[in-house]
Amino acid sequence: MSGNKEEVDPRINGIKTKIRVVPDFPKKGIMFQDITTVLLDPKAFKDTIDLFVERYRDKNISVVAGIEARGFLFGPPIALAIGAKFVPLRKPKKLPGETIFEEYELEYGNDRLEMHVGAVEAGDRALVVDDLIATGGTLCAAINLLERVGAEVVECACVIELPELKGRQKLKGKPLCMLVEYR
Amino acid sequence: MATEDGQDPRIPKIASSIRVIPDFPKPGIMFHDITTLLLDTEAFKDTIDLFVERYKGKGISVVAGVEARGFIFGPPIALAIGAKFVPMRKPKKLPGKVISEEYSLEYGTDKIEMHVGAVEPGERAIIIDDLIATGGTLSAAVRLLERVGVKIVECACVIELPECKGREKLGETPLFILISSA
């Protein structure tokens, strides 16, 4: 994780070695960070979750918001372990009830992130979880959604950071916790 | 809703935490929304516990989950029973080499995909999704895993819509569900 003692946590190297880098996906020049290979190793997957749970269990977090779809792999186990509710943040038209949305930029054009009305309440303390932070656009949209309904975003948590894309700067001053950097 | 396992006292609470939304995604469909279950920390924990109690210690090395709501229930079960989690995804989402299986929709077909090498012949698997309706997606997942020599011990869902006869599509593969919504 970023900073202090977790840099020497022996579990982190084990997780890092399980991440598969797939060149030229989804397009040429992109080195895609594939976490599905972490999920195939029960110890590495458990260690990933444990590292986040240890960090958040005593922080009175009432909401874990996970970004579709890979945030759904890490968010629920964390939520269950710390006793928080899990809120899926989804692409348009997937959530069946009344939603609010936040737009964010893609390389070409925009996309939207949606959340169910009523899922999160004013005063909730929230964590936002995704597998990876690149430019930070999606995470920024997630923070905006949560803050609009009066929640306090305590931290963003990602397994992987691509620091050269400077996503940290897009997080409206919220701290980022990550386990593995890829340069 | 009626309950599959009338005996376990946790099930009525789980059932009542699920929201039914009429006419989504189109008129006439009563959509079973599990997101409200995920907001109830006790109900979500009980849901996972019920599956874990059933599958722990049964030599299951693979939990396969169908995108996207299967990703919410599958990983906690996999972690608790010490199995790997294998995501089964819509086309073009998985970055590595994949194998795919087609299945029928009301109009046309769709595919689900799995990474080559994620599972090995002889592994014992369960397949998780939030709900079984017609069984199209689940039966495609079964075929995909069986093609690579995996034994499907059971399919497991939170909710079944029995009128959609999904169980029949699964043929010989057993199905375990918590809640039956007729």
From TrEMBL, chain A:
All copies of domain Phosphoribosyltransferase, residue ranges: 40-166
Gene3D superfamilies registered for this protein in UniProt: 3.40.50.2020
Pathway per the UniProt entry: Purine metabolism; AMP biosynthesis via salvage pathway; AMP from adenine: step 1/1
One Pfam family this sequence matches: Pribosyltran
Subcellular location field: Cytoplasm
NCBIfam families in UniProt: apt, PRK02304.1-3, PRK02304.1-5
GO molecular function terms listed in the Swiss-Prot or TrEMBL record: adenine phosphoribosyltransferase activity
Entry EC number(s): 2.4.2.7
InterPro entries: Ade_phspho_trans (IPR005764), Adenine_PRTase (IPR050120), PRTase-like (IPR029057), PRTase_dom (IPR000836)
Catalyzed chemical reaction(s): AMP + diphosphate = 5-phospho-alpha-D-ribose 1-diphosphate + adenine
Subunit structure: Homodimer.
Keyword Ubl conjugation on entry: no
Recorded GO CC terms: cytosol
Keywords, sorted A to Z: Cytoplasm, Glycosyltransferase, Purine salvage, Transferase
Family: Belongs to the purine/pyrimidine phosphoribosyltransferase family.
UniProt protein name: adenine phosphoribosyltransferase
CDD domains xrefs: PRTases_typeI (cd06223)
Species for this entry: Eutrema salsugineum
Lineage of the species this protein comes from: Eukaryota, Viridiplantae, Streptophyta, Embryophyta, Tracheophyta
One GO biological process term: AMP salvage
UniProtKB/TrEMBL annotation, chain B:
Subcellular location as annotated: Cytoplasm
Keyword Transferase: yes
Keywords, comma-separated and alphabetical: Cytoplasm, Glycosyltransferase, Purine salvage, Transferase
EC number: 2.4.2.7
Main location, first listed in the record: cytoplasm
GO CC term (a single one): cytosol
Catalysed reactions, as listed in the record: AMP + diphosphate = 5-phospho-alpha-D-ribose 1-diphosphate + adenine
Pfam families tied to this protein: Pribosyltran
Record's keyword annotation contains Transferase: yes
GO molecular function, one term: adenine phosphoribosyltransferase activity
Domain Phosphoribosyltransferase: 49-168
Biological pathway: Purine metabolism; AMP biosynthesis via salvage pathway; AMP from adenine: step 1/1
Domain of life per record: Eukaryota
GO biological process: one example: AMP salvage
NCBIfam families per record: apt, PRK02304.1-3, PRK02304.1-5
Family: Belongs to the purine/pyrimidine phosphoribosyltransferase family.
Subunit structure comment from the entry: Homodimer.
Protein name: adenine phosphoribosyltransferase
Organism from which the protein derives: Eutrema salsugineum (Saltwater cress)
